[in-house]
Amino acid sequence: MIDNGHLRVRTSDGRDGRGLKRIRVDELPCKVLWPRVDPPVRNGRRGEISISLFDAAVDLNPYQIEAALFAFRSPLSKGVLLADEVGLGKTIEAGLVLCQCWAERRRKLLVICPASLRKQWSMELSEKFHLPSVILDSASYREAIREGSASPFLAHGVVIVSMNFASRLAGEMQLVAWDLVVIDEAHKLRGAYRASNKMGQAIRTAIADRRKLLLTATPLQNSLLELYGLSTLIDEHLFGDLAAFRTQYCSKDGDLDGLKERLRSFCYRTLRSQVLEYVKYTERRPITRPFTPADSEQQLYEAVSAFLRRDDTYSIPRRQRELTTMILRKLLSSSSQAVAGTLERIRQRLLDLKARSHTGAALPEGDGLAEKLIEEDELNSELLDEPANGGELPVGDLPPLPAPVDLKKLDSEIAELDRFVHWARSIQIDAKTRALLTALQIGFDEMEKIGALRKAVVFTESRRTQEYLRNFLEANGYGGRIVLFNGTNTGPDVDRIYREWEHVNSPLGRLKGRTGDP
Asked: What is the maximum alpha-carbon separation in the chain?
């Protein structure tokens, strides 16, 4: 907050009458975070950074300023990693750094993030920092080319792209002398050091000589090699080669203290427990409701799992075996009804192959089965961004397909999938669904004790599971009280809710388009 030559930030000591601490601009380690310190002039006006922070809807906390300053402290390094825990405002910290670059007329700025976060980034930059931005995807890229742009990446404003798009156009992206590259959810590229991770490798190469700002709440999940992978995105020479890293830090007697010291030079992390005086969190009371799958459910899981482990099936494209297997396992854990629909899609794929077999056609390897499964069941599209799925094997790296198609083997697989589908459909109500009904009642009873409203949000892995649970709950005491939210936003319930909202908000001038509009 700006106030008469001071920057006001939340603090637990030195409070003024409004619960904020006053810090003089010249007391800050980096004056340029103060928008009135001689910003550059543009077209006879002060730089846009002045307007950005004067009008910005940003409630800064001290740790966010410290994180932004950390990014400036090593001007000769190739970048830093900001790894605050979830909900502490890493986007705000990155926004401060981007504002600084913009004020210094270093305006070739790039944000690489999962596709689902592109719009959120654009809105945050606009609403909180008044920075212009351009979301570049396949459609906007083609439109810019049609309009005569030599390079759509050289747009006015912060360029925002998805990880997949950045990977596909890495060659063109590499030609731009970016002043700063921000990578959000950087842990999705933690496998960039592996030659098999095509997406991570492409992005790492494209931004190798640029200054980077990596953002992730989970820099370490399963292996120290994930830290090594993230370090290579910043500078592949930070830890030397992979063998040296393994020897020095991953062995039984690894030098973990030495690793922590090395990390301090480029990694900054704030924990929730360190900022409770600034950020007040809603108390969360976890209640676990255990359940045991029925014998038929467990046997189905084991049977399908054994099928997925086979290498010689026509059912799963070899170039997407790992991703498709992951999807099926997620659906198995979601509900038997969800996996039944997916198995029917795979069965239909084999029937189509059988119909073409008379021409001697081989099973297509590039038919995008995984993408179709994700789209049909509205699974998390970020599965495509996972490091393990970041690149498919080139056709030349695959063993040759048997030709012509072995019809006897194909018929056997179709029959096997038929058996799985009927098996899954026969499990009409699984143990987890029954446990959900009990868990809801337990939750509502606890909420009643503290005077809370009887409302619950149930998250599902797939849309098929969502429909299945809606029907079950409607038939078990919650009729007319269930609302579905998913990527389609269609259906009678949604139409009714939208009409009610339209009736209330239309006179207020808030009507800008139908929910779900781009």
From this structure: 84
Residues in CB range of 479: below 8 A, 6 or more apart:
none
Give the closest residue to 68 by CA, choosing from 270, 272, 273. Answer: 270
Q: State how far the Cα of 360 lies from the Cα of 368, in Å rounded to an integer.
A: 21
Q: How many CB atoms lie within 10 A of CB 13?
A: 6
> Which of 200, 237, 218 lies closest to 112, judged by CA?
200
Dist CA 74 CA 80 (whole Å) = 9
Pairing status of strand 20-24 against strand 6-10: antiparallel
The contacts found for 30-39 with CB under 8 angstroms, 24 or more apart, are 30/68, 30/69, 30/72, 30/100, 32/100, 32/103, 32/104, 33/7, 33/65, 33/68, 33/69, 33/96, 33/100, 34/7, 35/2, 35/103, 36/2, 36/5, 39/103
Q: DSSP characters for 2-63? A: EETTEEEEE-SSSB-TTSEEEEEGGGSS-GGGSTTS-PPEETTEE-HHHHHHHH------HH
DSSP reduced 3-state for 79: strand
More confident residue, 221 or 3: 221
Q: Is 184 helix (H, G, I), strand (E, B) or coil?
A: coil
Answer whether residue 37 shows pLDDT above 80: no
| 285, pLDDT greater than 80 | yes
Tens digits of residue pLDDT in 142-197: 888 888 888 889 988 999 999 989 998 999 999 999 999 999 998 888 888 888 78
User: Token pair of 58, please?
Assistant: 């940003």
| Rounded Cα distance, 79 and 66, in Å | 16
Confidence bin at 309 (pLDDT 50/70/90): confident
Residues in the chain, total: 518
Q: Is 87 exposed, middle or buried (0-12, 13-18, 19+ CB in 10 A)?
A: exposed
| Integer angstrom CA distances of residue 343 from 123, 336, 353, 416, 431 | 39, 10, 15, 10, 21
pLDDT at 175: 92
Residue 356: how many other CB atoms lie within 10 Å: 13
- Residue 333 is encoded by which pair of tokens? 């854990």
Question: What's this model's pTM, rounded to 2 decimal places?
Answer: 0.61
CA 10 – CA 19 distance, rounded (Å)? 7
State the amino acid at position 468 in one-letter form: Y
220 pLDDT more than 60: yes
Element (H, E) at 213: strand 212-215
Specify whether the CB–CB gap between 199 and 384 falls below 8 A.
Answer: no
Is residue 134 a contact partner of residue 158, using CB atoms and an 8 Å limit?
yes
Q: CB 326: neighbour CB atoms within 10 A? A: 18
pLDDT at 195: 81
State the alpha helices, DSSP H only, in 309-430: 321-334, 336-356, 369-377, 407-426
